[in-house]
Amino acid sequence: MRTKVLLLLSALLLSLPLTAETLHEERSLYRDITVTQEGTRRCLVFNVHRGDRNQTCMNTADPERLVFEYAKMTFAGLLLKPEPQRILIAGLGGGSLPLTLTALYPDATIDVIEIDQAVVNVAKDYFGFAETDKVKVSVNDARVFVKRAGLLEQRYDFVILDAFTGDYIPEHLLTEEFLEEVRAIMAPEAVLVANTFSTSRFYDHESETYQQVFGEFFNFKLPSSGNRIIIARDTPLPARGELMVAARELSARVQRFGVPLLEYPNRLSTRIDWDRSRRVLTDQYSPSNLLRDN
Amino acid sequence: MAKPQPYPNALVVGAAFVSGFCIMTIEMLGARIMAPYFGGSLSVWGSILTVFMLALACGYLIGGRLSARRPSLVSYATFFLGAAITSLPIILLADEIMRPIFLAIEDPRYGSLLASMFLYFIPTTILGMISPYSVRLLVQHSDHSGQKAGLLFFVSTLGSAAGTLGTSFYFVLWFEVNEIVFGTAAVLALIGMMLAAVGISEKRYAD
What we know:
Chain A is an alpha/beta fold. Chain A has 9 helices and 12 strands.
């Protein structure tokens, strides 16, 4: 009996990542936040007890190099807008996107919206994020920020939607009305990059919603990532040749961040690979998180 | 000796269940209705819960007072009809109410609090009046008043639990938000008319 228990215990212990060290734990208004370090890999994890994925990771030996595929994939948006000057990012995470963009474009202004003050603090304390006179964080709900920015007639030329709360996206940030509000603060030729899911029934609904607001968009998926990146803009999408030209011009500059930009143009697809009969998500109908389980 | 009750208790008990159900259906949708203007932060939930608690508190007080003066099934019915009518602005005027508040108040905490007051306070107050009034209609003599009150709270809170679960698990998947609120108002109106019909016919019979 005792040996069985011991065996079980040791099996349990072995299944844990033995070298992961917890640097910081905090319960915020919205989630449990944990910062772990395993070798040179430092990660921000939301709701670790529920088994959620790492929100963001950093290589402490080479902080500039992006760790996650989806973070790198976000930069495919630059193929449509190679020199953004007014950038809006919804969802801070560990701050890797604003840090990389600010390194690439020191003159660009970057507004970051993050609902959770604790995430802002952790990004500053553990992931080298800093606010400057160009980079500003607003602790607010993205919906509220975007609606008000629209009233103030602010315009952005590069918008990134990356607002995950643990393992889902807030429902009011997925609706047709919200995307219309985002579209209203996009300058002519501005690009929207949304980091989202590549699986579940929800995929069809979300794709229909983006199609409804922006028309044809680029769908960007890689076999190595469970995420998909939606790249949309108000004007017709550029041809693949144009994307290749932009990739060649930019690829040297993004190399140090580990972004294989030259591989991206061939991966951007406008093919409709979802069920077009699915309903558009609206403020009236947005059971997104219920749909994800189906 | 207690006068025999002219209408079945089940009617009042059932109506109390429905009122509990409807309160939580509207409350669960409250956050969804306000999110486009005030976001999904914890403070928006805080605003909604605060307003619902305040409204219910007022409703209990008013309903209790009214039950002391010649309680009747017909007055009871008007609460349901009143709640049905006053919840219609949630469907018809939501944007008209929230837009000016969003423009005037920058802090989403106070914006959502004020918007909740305008959208939910009156119908919830009226729904709150139903509980004490139901107790009065069920109670025939003071010996069993506690027992009847217990039964009433049990039933209406059970209704609230069912309304919460039904709305958050299923209704939002099957219907649009406005359709659910409209359905709630329609059910309240139907119950109100039913109670009024029974009340009026019993009165005639008694005369």
